[in-house]
Specification:
266 residues, mainly alpha, three-stranded antiparallel sheet, 11 helices, 7 strands, 12% strand
């Protein structure tokens, strides 16, 4: 029985989506993947079919290019959506209370802001940011300090902040938690803030968003084109803008080497 072109095309589109679900797979390392990415760019019918296949699986195609490959995002209620509970299991979060989950959300937000602190960084496809465990921890702590001061000032003026109490509790919980402490065998304790940040960055590396480059500053990573595309989506979130507006992130030099403004005090 002959196979119709539509069936072959559908299989190819599904294969491209499947490649996108392998976070560390890149078109440059796979001839078939590279050819599918080229076809996506040149064939509008194939592009539309790829989007349809992805949508049927509860996925949205954010970008397809030779640098990042097929970058996908799960839609609401998709079976592929990474919920915080799933993330907690994957990153071995011991406590899964709501505050704990929000703390990890703050860490991921800070990581994205440190990786791409300027609009030009997100717009430049050749830009590569660097983040480290110490930088992310310092940034969240400095943001927590500034927000705490803002809350105290508002309270003194009888003008309480409109932020959700849960979020305020999360910032304060982060500030109260020790930055670092060693276990008996010399490892970083899991319930410290740097232990949490370290797990978060390793998780992002497992997803193909970061690449480890050294053990300096508790672990240093570089960003990937795949992560840049994801952060472009995140940049539309008000929380991302609010964090950047605190001016906690500073650019150390013209080469784009980034640091947290508070890191000099560490």
């Amino acid at each position: 029985m002959a196979v119709s072109h539509s069936s072959v095309d559908a299989e190819a589109a599904a294969r491209l989506v499947a490649y996108g679900m392998r976070p560390k797979q890149l078109p440059a390392r796979d001839v078939v993947y590279g050819e599918l990415v080229r076809r996506y760019a040149e064939d509008n019918a194939f592009k539309a079919l790829t989007h349809a296949v992805a949508a049927g699986l509860g996925l949205m195609v954010l970008e397809v290019n030779q640098q990042a490959g097929a970058v996908l995002a799960a839609t609401d209620e998709s079976v592929f959506e990474i919920r915080m509970d799933s993330y907690a299991r994957q990153s071995k979060i011991r406590e899964r209370r709501e505050t704990e989950k929000v703390l990890h959300g703050l860490i991921h937000l800070a990581t994205a802001a440190l990786g791409y602190p300027r609009p030009d960084d997100l717009a430049n496809d050749t830009y590569i940011g660097r983040v480290s465990v110490e930088q992310v921890d310092a940034m969240v702590r400095e943001a927590a300090r500034m927000l705490d001061e803002r809350a105290a000032e508002a309270e003194a003026n009888n003008d309480p902040l409109a932020d959700a109490p849960e979020l305020e509790q999360a910032w304060r919980a982060y500030a109260r938690r020790p930055a670092a402490a060693a276990t008996k065998d010399g490892r970083l304790a899991a319930d410290t803030t740097r232990g949490m940040v370290s797990r978060a960055l390793r998780f992002l590396a497992d997803q193909g968003f970061l690449v480890p480059v050294s053990d300096e500053q508790g672990g240093t990573y570089r960003t990937t084109p795949r992560y840049q595309i994801q952060v472009r989506e995140l940049a539309a979130d008000a929380a991302f803008d609010d964090l950047l507006a605190l001016n906690v992130v500073a650019v150390a030099n013209e080469g784009g080497s980034l640091r947290a403004a508070a890191s000099e005090t560490l």
